Protein: (Fe-S)-binding protein
Amino acid sequence: MNVALFIPCYIDQFYPQVGIATLQLLEKLGVNVSFPLNQTCCGQPMANSGFASLSGKCDQNFVSNFADADYIVSPSGSCVLHVKEHLHDDKRKVAAEKIRNNVYELSEFLVDVLKVENIRASFPHKVGFHTSCHGQRGLHLSSMTELVAPSFSKPEQLLKQVKGLELLPPTRPDECCGFGGTFCVFEEAVSVKMGKDRVTDHAQNDVEYITGGDVSCLMHLEGILKRQGSKVKTIHLAEILNSEV
Structure:
Protein backbone atom coordinates (compact mmCIF):
# COMPACT_ATOMS: atom_id res chain seq x y z
CA MET A 1 0.00 0.00 0.00
CA ASN A 2 1.48 3.29 -1.15
CA VAL A 3 -0.12 6.17 0.78
CA ALA A 4 0.64 9.79 -0.06
CA LEU A 5 0.12 12.33 2.70
CA PHE A 6 -1.81 15.43 1.66
CA ILE A 7 -1.26 18.29 4.14
CA PRO A 8 -3.40 21.40 3.46
CA CYS A 9 -1.59 24.73 3.33
CA TYR A 10 -3.09 26.17 6.52
CA ILE A 11 -1.98 23.08 8.47
CA ASP A 12 1.49 23.36 6.96
CA GLN A 13 1.75 27.03 7.89
CA PHE A 14 -0.02 27.25 11.26
CA TYR A 15 -0.49 23.74 12.71
CA PRO A 16 2.41 21.59 11.47
CA GLN A 17 2.06 19.36 14.55
CA VAL A 18 -1.16 18.00 13.04
CA GLY A 19 0.65 16.89 9.89
CA ILE A 20 3.41 15.31 11.95
CA ALA A 21 0.89 13.47 14.16
CA THR A 22 -0.89 12.16 11.06
CA LEU A 23 2.35 10.85 9.60
CA GLN A 24 3.43 9.21 12.87
CA LEU A 25 0.01 7.64 13.40
CA LEU A 26 -0.10 6.10 9.94
CA GLU A 27 3.43 4.74 10.32
CA LYS A 28 2.53 3.23 13.72
CA LEU A 29 -0.29 1.41 11.96
CA GLY A 30 2.15 -0.09 9.46
CA VAL A 31 1.43 2.18 6.51
CA ASN A 32 4.19 3.13 4.07
CA VAL A 33 3.78 6.91 3.76
CA SER A 34 5.26 9.32 1.24
CA PHE A 35 5.04 13.12 1.27
CA PRO A 36 5.07 14.78 -2.17
CA LEU A 37 7.26 17.83 -1.63
CA ASN A 38 5.79 20.01 -4.38
CA GLN A 39 2.20 19.92 -3.12
CA THR A 40 0.52 23.28 -2.54
CA CYS A 41 -3.03 24.55 -1.98
CA CYS A 42 -5.79 22.35 -3.39
CA GLY A 43 -7.71 25.42 -4.55
CA GLN A 44 -10.53 25.34 -2.02
CA PRO A 45 -10.32 29.07 -1.05
CA MET A 46 -10.97 30.06 -4.65
CA ALA A 47 -13.88 27.66 -4.96
CA ASN A 48 -15.38 28.96 -1.70
CA SER A 49 -15.32 32.46 -3.16
CA GLY A 50 -16.95 31.42 -6.42
CA PHE A 51 -13.80 31.24 -8.53
CA ALA A 52 -13.31 27.49 -8.90
CA SER A 53 -12.58 28.04 -12.60
CA LEU A 54 -9.37 29.84 -11.64
CA SER A 55 -7.92 26.90 -9.71
CA GLY A 56 -6.77 24.98 -12.81
CA LYS A 57 -3.07 25.30 -12.00
CA CYS A 58 -3.75 24.00 -8.48
CA ASP A 59 -5.53 21.00 -10.01
CA GLN A 60 -2.68 20.26 -12.39
CA ASN A 61 -0.12 20.49 -9.62
CA PHE A 62 -2.19 18.23 -7.38
CA VAL A 63 -2.45 15.58 -10.09
CA SER A 64 1.30 15.78 -10.74
CA ASN A 65 2.03 15.19 -7.06
CA PHE A 66 -0.49 12.46 -6.24
CA ALA A 67 -1.17 10.53 -9.47
CA ASP A 68 0.99 7.55 -8.50
CA ALA A 69 -0.41 6.99 -5.00
CA ASP A 70 -2.67 4.05 -4.18
CA TYR A 71 -4.33 6.19 -1.54
CA ILE A 72 -4.16 9.87 -0.58
CA VAL A 73 -4.85 10.65 3.09
CA SER A 74 -5.40 14.05 4.67
CA PRO A 75 -6.28 15.33 8.17
CA SER A 76 -8.81 17.75 6.66
CA GLY A 77 -12.33 16.77 5.63
CA SER A 78 -13.02 20.06 3.84
CA CYS A 79 -9.96 19.81 1.60
CA VAL A 80 -10.65 16.15 0.84
CA LEU A 81 -14.22 16.98 -0.15
CA HIS A 82 -12.98 19.80 -2.38
CA VAL A 83 -10.64 17.43 -4.20
CA LYS A 84 -13.41 14.84 -4.60
CA GLU A 85 -15.86 17.37 -6.03
CA HIS A 86 -13.66 19.82 -7.95
CA LEU A 87 -10.40 18.19 -9.07
CA HIS A 88 -10.11 18.14 -12.87
CA ASP A 89 -7.23 18.02 -15.32
CA ASP A 90 -8.16 18.04 -19.00
CA LYS A 91 -4.75 16.64 -19.97
CA ARG A 92 -4.77 13.86 -17.35
CA LYS A 93 -8.43 12.94 -16.94
CA VAL A 94 -7.81 9.34 -15.91
CA ALA A 95 -5.29 10.34 -13.24
CA ALA A 96 -7.63 13.00 -11.87
CA GLU A 97 -10.50 10.51 -11.66
CA LYS A 98 -8.28 8.02 -9.84
CA ILE A 99 -7.34 10.67 -7.29
CA ARG A 100 -10.96 11.71 -6.72
CA ASN A 101 -11.81 8.08 -5.96
CA ASN A 102 -8.78 7.40 -3.77
CA VAL A 103 -8.49 10.50 -1.55
CA TYR A 104 -9.55 9.93 2.06
CA GLU A 105 -10.05 11.96 5.20
CA LEU A 106 -7.98 10.46 8.05
CA SER A 107 -10.76 8.89 10.14
CA GLU A 108 -12.44 7.57 6.99
CA PHE A 109 -9.20 5.88 5.95
CA LEU A 110 -8.59 4.38 9.40
CA VAL A 111 -12.12 2.98 9.71
CA ASP A 112 -13.01 2.00 6.15
CA VAL A 113 -9.64 0.99 4.68
CA LEU A 114 -7.40 -0.04 7.58
CA LYS A 115 -10.39 -1.15 9.69
CA VAL A 116 -8.67 -0.10 12.92
CA GLU A 117 -10.27 -1.59 16.03
CA ASN A 118 -7.52 -0.95 18.60
CA ILE A 119 -5.84 2.42 18.21
CA ARG A 120 -3.52 1.90 21.23
CA ALA A 121 -3.57 5.50 22.40
CA SER A 122 -4.08 7.19 25.77
CA PHE A 123 -5.60 10.61 26.44
CA PRO A 124 -7.05 10.85 29.98
CA HIS A 125 -9.14 14.00 29.52
CA LYS A 126 -12.73 15.17 29.07
CA VAL A 127 -13.21 15.76 25.36
CA GLY A 128 -15.96 17.20 23.20
CA PHE A 129 -16.05 16.30 19.51
CA HIS A 130 -16.93 18.93 16.90
CA THR A 131 -18.60 17.46 13.84
CA SER A 132 -17.58 19.49 10.79
CA CYS A 133 -20.15 20.13 8.05
CA HIS A 134 -17.92 19.03 5.17
CA GLY A 135 -17.05 15.77 6.87
CA GLN A 136 -20.59 14.96 7.91
CA ARG A 137 -22.68 16.13 4.99
CA GLY A 138 -20.13 15.80 2.21
CA LEU A 139 -18.02 12.79 3.15
CA HIS A 140 -20.66 11.09 5.32
CA LEU A 141 -18.26 10.51 8.21
CA SER A 142 -21.19 10.61 10.63
CA SER A 143 -24.97 10.48 10.62
CA MET A 144 -27.20 13.56 10.54
CA THR A 145 -29.58 14.09 13.45
CA GLU A 146 -32.43 15.37 11.27
CA LEU A 147 -32.65 12.02 9.49
CA VAL A 148 -34.46 8.99 10.86
CA ALA A 149 -31.54 6.64 10.31
CA PRO A 150 -28.99 4.62 12.29
CA SER A 151 -26.56 6.79 14.25
CA PHE A 152 -22.84 6.52 13.52
CA SER A 153 -19.63 8.53 13.65
CA LYS A 154 -16.33 7.27 12.30
CA PRO A 155 -14.22 9.80 14.28
CA GLU A 156 -16.06 8.99 17.51
CA GLN A 157 -15.65 5.28 16.81
CA LEU A 158 -11.89 5.88 16.93
CA LEU A 159 -12.00 8.19 19.95
CA LYS A 160 -13.86 5.54 21.95
CA GLN A 161 -10.81 3.28 21.52
CA VAL A 162 -8.55 5.80 23.28
CA LYS A 163 -7.67 4.80 26.83
CA GLY A 164 -8.83 7.21 29.55
CA LEU A 165 -10.69 9.54 27.17
CA GLU A 166 -14.14 10.67 28.32
CA LEU A 167 -16.19 11.69 25.29
CA LEU A 168 -18.90 14.22 26.14
CA PRO A 169 -21.33 15.00 23.29
CA PRO A 170 -22.75 18.52 22.94
CA THR A 171 -26.50 19.17 23.01
CA ARG A 172 -26.55 19.94 19.27
CA PRO A 173 -23.94 17.51 17.88
CA ASP A 174 -24.00 18.53 14.22
CA GLU A 175 -24.46 22.28 14.34
CA CYS A 176 -22.06 24.37 12.21
CA CYS A 177 -19.30 26.26 14.03
CA GLY A 178 -19.62 29.21 11.67
CA PHE A 179 -16.17 29.08 10.07
CA GLY A 180 -17.29 28.17 6.55
CA GLY A 181 -14.05 29.13 4.77
CA THR A 182 -14.41 32.64 3.39
CA PHE A 183 -17.82 32.91 5.10
CA CYS A 184 -16.04 33.92 8.32
CA VAL A 185 -14.55 36.88 6.44
CA PHE A 186 -17.63 38.07 4.54
CA GLU A 187 -20.10 37.39 7.36
CA GLU A 188 -17.87 37.96 10.39
CA ALA A 189 -20.59 38.76 12.96
CA VAL A 190 -22.74 35.74 12.09
CA SER A 191 -19.68 33.50 12.01
CA VAL A 192 -18.50 34.60 15.44
CA LYS A 193 -21.97 34.17 16.99
CA MET A 194 -22.21 30.65 15.61
CA GLY A 195 -18.76 29.85 17.01
CA LYS A 196 -19.68 31.23 20.42
CA ASP A 197 -22.77 29.02 20.47
CA ARG A 198 -20.62 25.98 19.73
CA VAL A 199 -18.15 26.86 22.48
CA THR A 200 -20.95 27.41 24.99
CA ASP A 201 -22.52 24.05 24.14
CA HIS A 202 -19.24 22.20 24.77
CA ALA A 203 -18.39 24.26 27.87
CA GLN A 204 -21.61 23.09 29.54
CA ASN A 205 -20.03 19.64 29.69
CA ASP A 206 -16.94 21.00 31.48
CA VAL A 207 -14.68 19.64 28.72
CA GLU A 208 -10.92 20.15 28.76
CA TYR A 209 -10.53 19.81 25.00
CA ILE A 210 -12.57 20.23 21.84
CA THR A 211 -11.39 18.00 19.03
CA GLY A 212 -12.39 17.49 15.43
CA GLY A 213 -11.21 16.39 12.01
CA ASP A 214 -10.93 19.84 10.45
CA VAL A 215 -8.26 22.26 11.65
CA SER A 216 -10.17 25.12 10.03
CA CYS A 217 -13.12 24.60 12.38
CA LEU A 218 -10.81 24.12 15.36
CA MET A 219 -8.89 27.28 14.44
CA HIS A 220 -12.15 29.25 14.47
CA LEU A 221 -13.18 27.83 17.85
CA GLU A 222 -9.66 28.31 19.24
CA GLY A 223 -9.78 32.03 18.44
CA ILE A 224 -13.07 32.42 20.30
CA LEU A 225 -11.84 30.42 23.29
CA LYS A 226 -8.68 32.52 23.58
CA ARG A 227 -10.60 35.79 23.36
CA GLN A 228 -12.89 34.57 26.13
CA GLY A 229 -9.92 33.63 28.31
CA SER A 230 -11.18 30.04 28.43
CA LYS A 231 -9.03 27.18 29.72
CA VAL A 232 -10.56 24.84 27.14
CA LYS A 233 -8.10 23.88 24.41
CA THR A 234 -8.54 22.62 20.85
CA ILE A 235 -6.71 19.59 19.52
CA HIS A 236 -6.95 17.73 16.23
CA LEU A 237 -8.19 14.15 16.14
CA ALA A 238 -4.83 12.95 14.79
CA GLU A 239 -3.00 14.33 17.83
CA ILE A 240 -5.23 12.38 20.21
CA LEU A 241 -5.03 9.15 18.22
CA ASN A 242 -1.25 9.52 18.09
CA SER A 243 -0.88 10.05 21.86
CA GLU A 244 1.25 7.55 23.72
CA VAL A 245 -0.21 4.73 25.82
Observations:
- The longest strand covers residues 126-130.
